[in-house]
Amino acid sequence: MNKKVLLCLFTYNRPSFLLNAARSIDSFFPIGDRLIIDDGSSDPLVSQVIDRICATGNGKWKSYIRNRGADNLAYGGFYKNMSYALKYALSIGYDYCFFFEDDSQFVLDAKGFIENCEKVFDECQDAIQIQPLFLRRMASYHNSCEYIASANAYRTNRGFSTTAIWNLAHVRKLADEFHFFCDAGDDLPRNSAFWLKRGFRLYLAGEPNVAIIPWVQSYSHGSQPSSTHSNIDEVSKNYILKPLSEKELHWLEHRDHSIPAYQEYFSLSKENTERPIWHQKGQNLVRYYQLCSQIIEEENRLGKSPVPINKIPVWTKATSIPELASHLSWKPNSNVPKEWKKRVPKWLKNIKKQAILFRQFTLKSYFAYRELSQRLKKEQDSLALF
C-alpha cells in the first residue's frame, strides 16, 4: 500500500468518546497520519485528552483547535471543520482523507481496508467516498443501494457521508469549485447533492469495520457529564464498543452480501441487541417510530425480512437506483435572510418543531416499532449470532 492516508477525527465536548475513538484507531487502523480537529470545545477535559492522545501516539497524532465565533453553532461548525480538513489533505498531497467522528469506533482489524478502498475507487469511477460503517436498521436498503460483487461494495443513492474515506483524486479535479455548505445546521443533503449532480456517489464497504455508539445521551448543545469527573478512563468505559467476536466475524465474512450487515445484528452493546433502531436518548421518539414503520410496511409488502439488496456482478456506468430526490432538491442558498433567522427566538423555533413532530406521531408507528423488535430477535436467532 503506497497511498498517503490522512485520518481526521472530529470532536466537540465529548472527551470520553474522543478517547475511545482514538484508542480504537490505534488498535485497528495503524495506517497513515492522524489529525484531531476540535471545534473549540468548552469542556477542559477535551484538551487534556487531546494532549494525552498526541503524547502516546508515537508522533502520529496531531491536533488543530478552531476558535468558535458567535455565529458558529455546535453542529454548523462541523462542516467548516470538514472543509478545513479536506483542503489541508489536498494541500499536503494525500491520496485519501478519512473523516471519522468521535462517536464512532473501529470494532475489528481493518487490515487490507485501504487496499479494498483502492480497488473500489479504481473499478467504480463514480465513487467519491467509501463509508465503513455498519448499517443501521432505520430504513429499507433494497431500493436505495446495490451490491457490486466485483468491487465488494455497495453503491448508494447518496453522494456524501460525514464518516467515510474520500477519493482525493476526484476532489482535486474540483478543488476550485468545491466547498462545503455549512450555514443551515444539518447540511448533509446539500453537500450530498453537490456530488450527485456531478455524477459521483457514496459507496459502502462490503466488509464494514466501524460502528457508532448506540443509545447514548446527545451532547450536541452542552458538555458531557464526564467533564465533572477526574478519572476519564473510568467514565470512558461506559462508551466502549466491544470488538466483534470470532463468531460474528465469521458470519460477516461468509454472509450472502444481499443481506445487509446491520449493526443491530451484533452484540456491540447490551442495549443495542435489545433495541432494533437507532435513537439518541432525550430526543423526541416520533422520527424514531416513523423509521420503524417504514421498514415494517416495506418488508411486509414484499414479504421478506430483511429485504435483500440487488446484486450486480460487475460495475457498470449505468445504475438502477435514482439519486436521492430530497438531496437534489436542496438549493445552494436559502430564501430566508440570515438576519431574519437570527431574530427568531430559540423557544419559538422549538415550539414549531415540537408541534410538527406531535402532529406526525401515530400509534401505528409505535406498534410498528414493537413488531420490528420481535422480528429482529427472530432474525438474530436464525443467523445464530448469539
How would you describe this protein?
The protein is of the alpha/beta class. It has one domain (1-386): Spore Coat Polysaccharide Biosynthesis Protein SpsA, Chain A (Alpha-Beta Complex). The protein is 39% helix and 14% strand. It is built from 14 helices and 12 strands. The chain has helices at 15-28, 44-56, 76-92, 113-123, 168-173, 188-196, 232-236, 246-254, 270-274, 286-302, 325-328, 338-343, 346-360, 363-383, and strands at 5-11, 33-38, 61-65, 96-101, 104-106, 127-131, 145-148, 153-156, 164-167, 201-205, 210-212, 310-312. The chain has a 10-stranded mixed sheet, sandwiched between helices. A two-stranded antiparallel sheet has the order 5-11. Strand 7 and strand 8 form a beta hairpin. The relative contact order is 0.14.
Calculate the terminal CA-CA distance, rounded to whole Å. Answer: 36 Å
CATH fold-level topology: Spore Coat Polysaccharide Biosynthesis Protein SpsA, Chain A
Radius of gyration: 21 Å
Order of helices and strands: EHEHEHEEHEEEEHHEEHHHHEHHHH
Counting DSSP E segments of at least 2 residues, the number of strands comes to 12
Major β-sheet strand ordering: 3-2-1-4-9-6-10-8-7-12
Treating each run of at least 4 consecutive H or I residues as one helix, how many helices? 14
Provide mean pLDDT, rounded. Answer: 82
What fraction of residues sit in β-strands?
5-15%
CATH architecture call: Alpha-Beta Complex
How many distinct folded domains? Answer: 1
Helix content: 25-40%
Secondary-structure content class: alpha/beta
User: How would you characterize the largest beta sheet?
Assistant: 10 strands, mixed
The global form is globular
CATH superfamily: Spore Coat Polysaccharide Biosynthesis Protein SpsA, Chain A
Task: Report the uncertain regions.
Answer: 69-76, 218-223
CATH C-level category: Alpha Beta
